[in-house]
Amino acid sequence: MSEREDVQKKILDEAERLGKGDAFRFSCRPGVSCFTNCCSDVNIVLTPYDILRLKKRLGVDSKQFLDEFTVSPFTKEQTFPVVMLKMREDDEKSCPFLGTREEGCTVYEDRPWSCRMYPVGKASPPEDAAGEEEFFFLMKEEHCKGFEEATDDWTVGGWMDDQGVADYDRFSEGFKEIVLHRLVREGVELSPRRMEMFQQAFYDLDTFRSFVFESSFLEKFEIDDEEQEAMRTSDEALLEFSPRWLRFALFGDVTAVSIKEHILEAKREDLRRTGKLK
Ligand code: SF4
Ligand code: SF4
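^ thats the input. predicted complex w/ iron/sulfur cluster below
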């Protein structure tokens, strides 16, 4: 377990649970003695919106981004694929986007959610988990002097506003809808094909767009012209659609997408023929 994972586990077990109005003192800026120390040998799990922002920033498509800058470790315990930033193969195992000590992060305006939030952590229970609420906590790690050298007062909510996490949090709602879905918590196992659908719809948006517009997808599913145009031209619109598609494709939720009448009729006919529908 890495230092950060170790600290996170300890915090979830023991740390004070904070709300958005709770205060803390912390400073992170060029000039703190530890500047950029947190950008090496670190596990950064990327969200779908992190990937969208970074691939745009770098001017590459999602497939190129995933191939060049990420790794997807997989264990038997995982239900879904996870994408992590691939650290450089230098002695420090530094982040691929770390510049000189003076430059700091070279993708700062598009840095991932977890880089923005640090040292604030967030724990989100599933939406239907009775009695459990989202809470925040502070990660105080040895290498980070931001608490010791602090001159700035924050609230948790003020920190999040300052770091620009609102768009990231908006897109994370659709992601959570899938990864914390009731069927997932009940232990549903996804076939390799469904895993691939998840990977494509959330992480590999350019390939997902080809699937939507270059396969028979639009012959089967009703999507109005305006939404089609948005999905064709905007990664954000496509990513808004991804959780709807996955609710249907992974969990069979027919309320998530509108299936064309001729497809439904063919299915009914098939069921009648086999005696499953009278
Ligand atoms: S993306 Fe930027 S802030 Fe995040 S670890 Fe890399 S260099 Fe540091
Ligand atoms: S204060 Fe903490 S978060 Fe900021 S650069 Fe130093 S180690 Fe990184």
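Residues 3-176 form one domain.
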